[in-house]
Amino acid sequence: MSTPLPLTEAPSWPHCAYGADPATDPVGCPGIHVPGHTACLAHLADTDRTTYLTGLAPGADIDHRGTSFTEDLLNQLLAALRDPTTQHPHFGDARFGGARFSDHADFGWAQFSRDAEFGEAQFSYGASFDWAQFSYSAAFGRAQFSGEAWFIGVQFSRDALFNEAQFSYGAQFERSQFTGVAQFDRSQFTGDAGFSEAQFSGEARFNGTQVSGDAVFIGAQFSTSARLGPLACAGMVMLASAVFGAPVTLEIAASAVSCVRTRWESTATVRVRRAEVELGYAVLVAPVAVAAYPAPFTTDNGDIVDESLLTGPDRVRVRSVQGVDAAHLVLTDTDLSDCLVSGAFHLDQIRMEGRTTLAPAPTGWHRKGIIPIRWTRRRTLAEEHHWRAQSAGQPPAPAGAPPESRRWRIGPHHPDPARTPNPDDVAALYRQLRKAFEDGKNEPGAADFYYGECEMRRHDHTGTPRTERHLLWAYWLLSGYGLRASRALAWLAAAMLTTILLLMAFGLPASSPKQEATGTVPAGGGTVTFTIDKQDPKNPVKDRFTTKRFDKALSVTLNSVVFRSSGQDLTTTGTYIEMTSRILEPALLALAVLAIRGRIKR
């Protein structure tokens, strides 16, 4: 129980002033006078209080602003207003602004036929309004709930105003119905804010709301609300199975946002800060954009939303889009390093805008048996990480440990192979995402997905024939599937060097063959016939590796790269070497050019 501080200014109504002290408490009791008396209900004489309560009837208008209520006094008032038909309290115009409830305040099942005012009221212990009915506006602005606040199943037929209210132990509004405006602007929930299965027929305002626990909107329905937030939540904002019936903008700064099976009947923009977003099995009837917001949100008044409750990294991480019709999904500036995309529909139509981050392959050198290997730097899907970690028998990481850059990321079902995607499944995911990027004219971005698709096909022993796997292996070895220019150029340099060495050793003759003319002069005179022949080229006996021979071999090799004949005399072996070079080296050059083009074309 918290003791209210003495007031320094007198209220605007005629007040009781009981216990006033010019030095310590100049105002005294701020309770309004009971009609016909000069004291509030709490400090009224017992006979006068009994007379007043006896004169009340169900549906009567009451005014007890600033009055201090004990549990017994409140029960007496509720008993005086109890409707004999329903056995529940029935208020007309109820004015409890600034009232102080020192014990549990139970307004459960009460009916408020006119306006209900609880602005700046203080509830020192729990307050219960379960299944109450507010036929007109319900005003709880700046109310303080020092205990638990229960509003389960409440019907707010008009506006429900909780702006700047403070809930020290959270509040529960499950299954409540908000027909008018539901206003929680700048309200603070020290615990959880529960709105599961609540119905918001009007505007739902959470402008600048602070929640230190979880904000729970599971199964809530937002019929016409055009905006939710900006709100800051230290825990998780749970929108699972919620329904948004109209175009809406959500602005949320939180540790996590769950939109599992959320249904958007119209367009939606979800602006998020710092959170992990779960979109699994959400129903998107119209386009929905999920974007990382670059700066703290501001309220309608221009105030910056306080994010001091949040301690996580300043990035938005999408965890899953499984089961989502991705044709309506746009992701902007999001981190997809651990995002599961398997099971999504129309994945080839998803749009990834801005700086989309995917998990890189492990860094550094590794050992496969006795062979050192190094993974190519590229963007990869979480499903490939999970399969490689499972197939390599990688041990699970300690709970809560961040992913290691030198290891593959383990999946949620590691190391169960039955629940880990196989290479054939992952190849299909890469293929669809590659098409999505190509349709968006982002060929450099699609290159990594093509590389991943080929990798998965090369490792697929069930859906990819052996011959095709061997061809993919050669394609990977020579040029990284036509995407690694450095690899193709390295092979080209090696092939040219080999060609030069072979030509110097076996392909170039010792000297240029000379022509010889032979003929016979007839004895009786006449025409002389000459036969012109050329000596066969011969390899030198020594001095094969000289500068002069290197120049000739280099000329032959360079001409072979561009598929031209050098015109150089060669031995028979050299002729075959040149023929092989004219086939292999232009192919390697073409692979290098293809790889460069794939990386820079837009």
Low-confidence stretches: none
Mean pLDDT: 90
- What's the tally of helices? 9
Question: How far is the N terminus from the C terminus?
Answer: 66 Å
List the helices and strands and how they pair.
Elements: H1 46-54, E1 62-63, E2 68-69, H2 71-80, E3 90-91, E4 94-95, E5 100-101, E6 105-106, E7 111-112, E8 116-117, E9 122-123, E10 127-128, E11 133-134, E12 138-139, E13 144-145, E14 149-150, E15 155-156, E16 160-161, E17 166-167, E18 171-172, E19 177-178, E20 182-183, E21 188-189, E22 193-194, E23 199-200, E24 204-205, E25 209-211, E26 215-216, E27 221-222, E28 227-238, E29 243-244, E30 248-258, E31 263-264, E32 268-273, E33 276-278, E34 283-284, E35 288-292, E36 317-320, E37 329-332, E38 351-353, E39 359-360, E40 365-368, E41 371-374, E42 379-380, H3 382-391, H4 423-439, H5 443-459, H6 466-479, H7 485-507, E43 515-520, E44 529-534, H8 547-561, H9 572-600
Helix pairs in contact: 4-5, 5-6, 7-8, 7-9, 8-9
Q: What would your notes on this structure say?
A:
With 602 residues, the chain is α/β, with parallel strands linked by helices. It has a 21-stranded parallel β-sheet that branches. A ten-stranded parallel β-sheet has the order 3-7-11-15-19-23-27-29-31-34, with no helix packed on it. It has a seven-stranded parallel β-sheet with strand order 1-4-8-12-16-20-24, with no helix packed on it. A hairpin with a 2-residue loop joins strand 40 and strand 41. Helix 5 crosses helix 6 and helix 8 crosses helix 9. The protein is rod-shaped and about 170 Å long. It starts with 45 loop residues before the first helix and ends with a helix.
